[in-house]
């Protein structure tokens, strides 16, 4: 958020409804673009498949292949994303932009290497044809690049180009799909290939934008894996990202492989009555995602920057206390505003959702409507809990954030498994309970931490510098040594 914040403040300070809408649009493109694109592609491709007469089993199989690639890539990315984001932010703060591009390629290569080792065996034993296996693996790799690249896009200010890249990828996906189907290309392969083309174009667009903004120093490529040191230094962040992912999506896997899931083909399982409501309910949190970025960067961050700046600029105790009160007041005000906005969207989705669900060609039944309402509440609570956790990260309370994320990761699958012993209509309550626990723990920790903020800022810090040399640091040293030896030989 280091780069987007200043530009958002400039846009938001401009007068007029259009300027404010533009600020929301910019934020939405950066933070919600890939999420919306993923949902749009799944629904759009499903519609195309039905339009050309693809049978129900093949449509479900196609949707499962895309969904599994998305979830698998997000799982791998979640383990690295927070530490990589912290590394990129530190490099930007220290004006070491030359490290950005190497770290992008290094982190992407690491994720793809680890992900391919884990995902390829799954695909091999899933009964795919060779073409389907290759396309699935390509899609998985492209998604790794896209999720990782979006983290770096927050430093860019060329929002029109970013928006055009996202829109072009969406349009290209459907155009390629139509063209391949028009020439009688096998429907299943044609649609899967079109998704690969769309995400491939997005990946190329991200690379182009990053290359245009950040310098590429070939001598710095030897530091492509420097981010590994940040994974040791901020290992709590690594776990937080991974545990949040487990909490968000763990309940889906439990349903897939439980009594209410069904085998689509090979190792691919799904639960249509649960999957569609989950995806639709998940989209309702976009309002909080976008508004949180605006609220923190436009309103909260200036107060936050002033407060911590006073410690470095010899501010008086009175100035520091005054700045702390201002910062906490703004934080509470913005958190309450976010909660009200999310509540409004959740109530609107529940009340008006039935009419929308009837229009969509998704085969919605009464059971799915019930899941949708339950999950809207669950994801709404999760959205606010995630904001509270983000505030803990702002104050570097990594232990508190890790506690909340760990509880969420455990509660989500456990309570979902427990809900399967009751009536089928209670299935979504497992995630709702888990999100509520996450919210209460994050709220309690943030309240406790901010009441003793000056103590945690000054007295709770270590007296001596602590070095973090673990597995990832040793891996960095090894890879750097291999690169140095290879350079000498060449």
From TrEMBL:
Keywords: Membrane, Transmembrane, Transmembrane helix. The keyword Disulfide bond does not apply. The chain crosses the membrane at residues 23-49, 61-84, 104-125, 131-150, 162-183, 189-214, 234-258, 278-296, 343-364, 370-394, 425-444. InterPro entries: PelG (IPR031617). It comes from the Bacteria. This is Exopolysaccharide Pel transporter PelG. It comes from Abiotrophia defectiva ATCC 49176.
């Amino acid at each position: 958020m280091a780069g987007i914040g200043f530009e958002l403040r400039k846009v938001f300070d401009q007068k007029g409804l259009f300027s404010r809408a533009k600020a929301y649009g910019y934020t939405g493109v950066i933070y919600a673009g890939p999420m919306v694109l993923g949902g749009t592609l799944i629904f759009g491709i499903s519609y195309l498949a039905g339009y050309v007469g693809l049978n129900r089993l093949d449509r479900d199989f196609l949707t499962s292949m895309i969904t599994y690639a998305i979830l698998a890539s997000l799982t791998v990315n979640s383990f690295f994303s927070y530490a990589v984001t912290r590394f990129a932010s530190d490099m930007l703060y220290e004006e070491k932009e030359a490290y950005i591009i190497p770290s992008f390629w290094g982190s992407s290569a690491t994720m793809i290497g680890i992900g391919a080792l884990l995902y390829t065996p799954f695909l091999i034993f899933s009964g795919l044809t060779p073409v389907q296996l290759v396309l699935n693996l390509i899609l998985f790799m492209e998604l790794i690049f896209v999720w990782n690249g979006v983290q770096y896009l927050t430093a860019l200010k060329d929002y029109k180009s970013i928006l055009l890249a996202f829109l072009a990828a969406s349009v290209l996906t459907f155009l390629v799909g139509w063209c391949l189907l028009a020439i009688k290309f096998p429907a299943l392969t044609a649609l899967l290939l079109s998704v690969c083309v769309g995400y491939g174009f997005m990946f190329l667009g991200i690379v182009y934008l990053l290359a245009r903004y950040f310098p590429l120093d070939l001598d710095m490529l030897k530091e492509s894996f420097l981010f590994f040191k940040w994974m040791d230094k901020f290992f709590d962040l690594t776990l937080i990202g991974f545990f949040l992912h487990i909490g968000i999506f763990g309940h889906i896997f439990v349903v897939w492989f439980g009594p209410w899931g069904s085998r689509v083909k090979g190792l691919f399982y799904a639960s249509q009555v649960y999957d569609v409501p989950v995806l639709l309910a998940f989209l309702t949190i976009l309002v909080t995602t976008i508004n949180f970025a605006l609220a923190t960067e436009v309103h909260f961050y200036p107060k936050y920057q002033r407060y911590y700046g006073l410690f470095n600029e010899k501010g008086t105790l009175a100035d520091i206390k005054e700045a702390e009160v201002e910062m906490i007041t703004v934080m509470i005000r913005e958190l309450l505003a976010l909660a009200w906005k999310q509540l409004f969207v959740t109530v609107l989705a529940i009340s008006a959702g039935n009419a929308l669900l009837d229009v969509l060609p998704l085969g919605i039944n009464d059971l799915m409507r019930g899941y949708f309402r339950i999950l809207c509440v669950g994801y709404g609570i999760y959205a606010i809990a995630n904001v509270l956790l983000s505030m803990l990260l702002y104050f570097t309370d990594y232990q508190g954030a890790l506690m909340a994320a760990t509880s969420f990761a455990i509660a989500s699958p456990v309570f979902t498994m427990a809900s399967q012993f009751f009536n089928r209509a209670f299935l979504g309550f497992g995630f709702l309970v888990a999100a509520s626990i996450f919210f209460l723990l994050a709220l309690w920790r943030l309240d406790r931490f901010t009441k003793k903020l000056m103590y945690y800022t000054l007295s709770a810090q270590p007296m001596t510098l602590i070095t973090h040399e673990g597995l990832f640091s040793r891996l960095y040293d090894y890879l750097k040594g291999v690169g140095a030896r290879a350079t000498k030989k060449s």
